């Protein structure tokens, strides 16, 4: 895949801060437009460290004032097997950096229940919640208005790691699974749910992502195929990948 074949738009900014600002602006315009059109907007947040800069933009900037947060439903694309107040929890991170600072309706914030005994059942419950709340598109799959994603240096996205069975899941929309490289369970959206979204924004910054990004947009099909993120291919939606110069450094992004 060359850049021309990437199933979406690629934007490279000089710094991580600028890449986050670009994504913040897109998030704002998507939420404003969807709420204007239909009265509410469903958003799945991303975990990890990269989105701190994005969430902080909303937490302290006037950009946030224009966002109808009260009409926005917040979900999570993946979660670690810890309690919601644990330092590793994606919900905890989002709460600290974003949710505590914006006027969301607490009843519309839906953390993944990844801290209970039976994680498989918890994943099925989260899927039911999504099915109950979010209208389906083609293929009977709920269509999020916006899913935010990141990428690890090994090409994982959400908690869909290389060489795990969850990559090939076609039925379940949310799964909990053991990830050998982490030695832990994670709960995660699967590709059928991700790829049904109206908008997917992938924010990837930092030198440690450069090799994977080069493989993702490069011509070596085998190398690309090993990256779970290469399976992000919206069926009928928009994909935008925002990079900083460090993450884009090894990639050939000409045309
Ligand atoms: C998580 C994620 C995961 C993340 C990547 C990148 O819970 O960790 O949702 O997919 O986006 O691991 O993580 P960093 O932003 O920390 O590099």
Describe the secondary structure blueprint for this structure:
Elements: E1 9-13, H1 16-38, E2 41-45, H2 51-60, E3 72-76, E4 78-80, H3 90-97, H4 119-133, E5 146-149, E6 174-179, E7 184-189, H5 191-194, E8 199-204, H6 210-217, H7 221-225, E9 238-244, H8 245-248
Parallel strand pairs: 1-9, 2-3, 2-5, 5-8, 8-9
Antiparallel strand pairs: 4-7, 6-7
Helix pairs in contact: 1-2
This protein binds 6-phosphogluconic acid (6PG).
6-phosphogluconic acid binds at residues 46-50, 78, 90, 150-152, 156-158.
Shape: globular
Which hetero ligands occur in this complex?
A: 6-phosphogluconic acid
* Series of secondary-structure elements, N-terminal to C-terminal: EHEHEEHHEEEHEHHEH
Question: Any guess at the CATH architecture?
Answer: 3-Layer(aba) Sandwich
Specify the biggest β-sheet. Answer: 6 strands, parallel
Residue fraction in strands:
15-25%
Strands side by side in the biggest sheet: 1-9-8-5-2-3
Show unreliable segments.
none
**How many structural units, i.e. domains?**
1
Helix content: 25-40%
Task: Briefly summarize what is shown.
This protein is α/β, with parallel strands linked by helices. The chain has 8 helices and 9 strands.
Describe the protein in words.
- With 255 residues, the protein is of the alpha/beta class.
- It has one domain: Rossmann fold.
- Helices cover 30% and strands 18% of the residues.
- Bound molecules: 6-phosphogluconic acid.
- Residues 46-50, 78, 90, 150-152, 156-158 line the site of 6-phosphogluconic acid (6PG).
